[in-house]
Amino acid sequence: MTDYSEYLSFLYSALDSQNKNKLVLSENTSLVADMGLSSLEVMEFIEKIEDHFDISIPLNILPDVNTIGDLATKVRQLNL
Amino acid sequence: MMFDKFKPMADFQAELAERSVKPFGAVTEKILSATEGVVQGRNVILAGTNNYLGLSFDSRCIKAAQDAAVRWGTGTTGSRLANGSFAEHQALETEIAQFYGVDNAIVFSTGYTATMGMCATLAGPGDVILLDADSHASIYTGVKLSGAEIIRFKHSDPEDLAKRLRRLGDRASQTLIIAEGIYSMIGDVAPLQEIAAVKREYGGYLLVDEAHSMGVMGATGRGAAQAAGVETDVDFFCGTFSKSLGAVGGFCVSQHAELAAIRFCINSYIFTASSSPSVIASTREALRIVATEPALQTKLWDNCNRLYQGLKSMGLPVGPTASPVVAVAMEDRSRTIDCWKALMEAGVYVNLVIPPASPSTNFLLRNSVSAAHTSTQIDTIIDAYADLKVAGLITGIPAH
Fold first, then answer.
1. ipTM (interface pTM)
2. Of B292, B308, B328, at which residue does a domain stop?
3. Could you give the dihedral angle defined by the CA atoms of residues B58, B59, B63 and B64, in that order, rounded to the nearest 10 degrees?
4. DSSP 8-state symbol, B189
5. Out of A47, B14, B172, B348, which could bridge B168 as a Cys pair, Cβ 3.0 to 4.6 Å?
6. Upstream peptide bond of B356 is cis (omega within 30 degrees of 0)
């Protein structure tokens, strides 16, 4: 998987179970402000991504992650 | 607005005030013994103090503190690096190193600054820190300050730790792995044998915070790593004097001689006043007692098992094993507050814990056990929970 859009697609499907309000997700959807994920739920989601791609996502990058698009960019960088 | 982020907490405090409940910062008006006090006007059994061995009221510790205050004064008025290193501090460092069978020790002013300081200083930019997901706030604060790359592994999951070390490749050997002996909220014991085995396989350095396990576990009270037989795999032990030793302060001990140089690089050690001589003196005495009176640990565990089994047999969702921390997990915040209030009215003070201080979305009624509790007191605590169940405030249904 190399394309940004492929990472986005994966994140959309991985977020499905946590999309309590059935929002239409886009790269601009905020994980916290729009989806209302708690810090614990964000970390659970991060673990799901880590297991899928067999990567570790450092906590250091999280302050720069607001939207699904931000996360797709970071995961892509880590998985290259 | 800068203050907007505090509004949820202000609203929560207002809700508590409206319900006439003050679980956070409850004022102890009088201490009657290591296990009894007057809190918010009520005589209560203290079941939320971390006074695991009951040494805060040991006459020998009190006498040592009194003598030191007379001899050394009430405070050092300075940093350990300036005028605040008295012979008492140096003696405690020698004794805590001997207690752990190593040559190097640093005494800090609190347990928080000890753990935070070591986590902030040991690893730096270019290094990696792998910490247990349920680590204490002092660890999270420290690693954030370190400048290192910070990665969590799943709580007490050696396989996940191994997986993450494998992903690091050559960098694994430059990784600081952080775990705790007993986790402070649920009271579960870390699988240190397995964690140490992973460290042996991949390399790296292991720091274990024995804040809640020192004096509580191990043949001579050194903690969970001693109980697991893996002390030689641990590069740095951190801990506190504010729990089993009944005072306040913290420490780091290590087999590495480099600790002598590290001492001069830890901001939380350098830029704060050192502990009062009376605190150091009572800590020295308490350490001597821990090393020479294993019966205290036996009594503590008798009480732990009594409380744990009592609550578990009621069907309450407690932790995986008996421990000096016995937490009852609850799903509903309002119900948990009601339970805390009812326990107080029944004469039992416990800790109310809310996320994110609790390791999940659960709320906790956190009980801590002391060797100084009598069996009758433990039974009173159990009875108070039974009354909560009868009143329909608490169920045996496990929280998630």
1. 0.91
2. B292
3. -30
4. B
5. B172
6. yes
pTM above 0.90, yes or no: yes
Q: Do residue B219 and residue B325 come from a single domain? A: no
Q: What residues make up the domain containing B207?
A: 59-292
How many angstroms separate the CA of residue B278 from the nearest CA in chain A? 41
- Ordered alpha helix ranges (H), chain B: 7-18, 59-72, 87-100, 111-121, 137-146, 158-168, 192-202, 224-228, 259-262, 267-270, 277-292, 295-313, 333-345, 375-390
State whether B150 and A43 contact (CB < 8 Å): no
Same domain, residue pair B64 and B101: yes
Domain count, chain B: 2
Contacts of B122 (CB under 8 A, 6+ apart): B146, B176, B205, B207, B236, B262
What Rg value do the Cα atoms of chain B yield, rounded? 21
Domain CATH code at residue B142: 3.40.640.10
Q: Looking at this protein, which amino acid is placed at residue B248?
A: V
- The dotted CATH code for A4-79 is 1.10.1200.10
In a domain, B122, yes or no: yes
B378: in domain:
yes
CB-based contact, B172 to chain A, within 8 Å? no
- Which residues of B are less than 8 Å from A57 in CB distance? 151
Whole-angstrom CA distances from B142 to A43, B66, B129 are: 19, 34, 11
Query: What φ, ψ does residue B379 adopt, rounded to 5°?
Result: -65, -35
Q: Using CA coordinates, name the residue in chain B closest to A40.
A: B360
pLDDT one-digit tens code per residue, B336-391 = 999 999 999 999 999 999 888 888 778 999 999 999 999 999 999 999 999 999 99
